[in-house]
Each structure stands twice: as C-alpha cells, then as structure tokens.
Amino acid sequence: MDCDVLTLAGIWNSGPSHWQTHWEKRNPAWKRVAHRDWNNPDRQEWVDEVDAAIAMSEGPPILVAHSLSCGLVAHWARSESALSISGAFLVAPADAEGAAFPSEAVGFAPMQLHKLPFPSIVVASTNDPYVSIERARAFAEAWGSRFVEIGDAGHINGDSGYGDWPEGEKLLGELCRQVSA
Predict the structure, then answer these.
(1) Do the beta carbons of residue 156 and residue 125 sit within 8 Å?
(2) d(C-alpha 151, C-alpha 26), whole Å
(3) Which of helix, strand or coil describes residue 72?
(4) Alpha helices in 57-124 (DSSP H)
(5) CB-based burial, 5-26: b 16+ in 10 Å, e otherwise
(6) Which site from 94, 116, 121, 177 is most exposed, i.e. has the minimal number of CB atoms within 10 Å?
(7) Among 70, 168, 50, 153, which Cα is nearest to 116's?
(8) CB count, 10 Å around CB of 45?
C-alpha cells in the first residue's frame, strides 16, 4: 500500500494482538502517534500530539484510528490546524456520550458531528460495547463518511478476534487508492 499512514490507537493503546500492531509490523514506514498518557487521555493534549505527528509526516497522511481516536480525529478536524490529511479510516468509534465510555478520558464529549473535510470510512460492529450500531451510523452520516457494517465483531480489536484483519486492510487500501487518484 503506497500511502503515508499514521495509526491512532485508543485509550490504553493497542496491544500486540491488535490489527493496528500487525499492520505496522508489515509496514515499517507507518507510525503510531505516541501519547504522553495512554491511560488518562486529555482531548486537547491528544489533539496537539496528533497535530505534531502530522507535521512530521512527509505529506498529508491517512489517519488510521480505533475506538476513542475516531472521535479524536473529528476533534482534530475542528481544531483549526493549518495542517491537512489525505483521509481517515475510523474503526469502532467509541461514543464519548455513551454510558460505557471510559471515565478516564477527559474532554471528548460531546461528539463532534460536523462533516469531515477529507474522505473517510467508518467501520462498525453490531455488538460493540462502546457504541450502538445506530450511533456509529449517525457518526458516519454526520462526518460524511462511507459506512461499513461488519456484523457481530465486538470492538473490532485483538480481544474480538481481529488480529491481522485482512478485510480491514483491504478497506484501507480502497481509501488509499481513492485519495491517491
């Protein structure tokens, strides 16, 4: 895949069995955005850290986000950054207004529901504990994203059996080709 990619893990980071980790191993040029505090995320600090990582990229990257970081991308898009990205691949968006949203994450509510100024895909599961399929669909609609429902897939992470996840990588490839055309 010939796209510049930054991965954005959710709260607590993505472990060794997570698809983001598998993809990064196969694509050593891809970089995971590092955060000072993975366990107690502060929205403004995380937005600033994403912005700094984008600034270090050779060109406008595709952001590959999971869980909490899907909402982070929407907050970054509203941050008035002078930087740009090519697109966003948003998997299992956690609902910052939902009852299951981790209390350790500060400032992510309300969800930003404005059209994103770049192409995007939202991938969601029908039984994700952090977002209902209806809310995930509403996020995609508000963000102007292509919506892909993959059935009962939990939180679409290593614990849900989505380690290597070749189907997701294929969807990312479609976005990569779209933004490179």
Answers:
(1) yes
(2) 26
(3) helix
(4) 68-77
(5) bbbbbbbeebeeebbbbbbbee
(6) 177
(7) 70
(8) 15
Average pLDDT, consecutive stretches of 10 residues, N- to C-terminus, the chain (181 residues)? 92 96 96 97 98 96 98 97 97 97 96 98 98 98 98 96 95 96 86
| Token representation of residue 42 | 């502060």
Per-residue pLDDT tens over the stretch 93-112: 999 999 999 999 999 999 99
Beta strand spans in the chain (E): 5-8, 31-32, 62-66, 87-91, 120-124, 146-149
Alpha-carbon distance 43 to 75, whole Å? Answer: 8
Q: Which two tokens stand for residue 90?
A: 């948003």
- Cα–Cα distance, 87 to 74 (Å, whole number): 12
Retrieve residue 132's tokens.
């209902």
pTM value > 0.90: yes
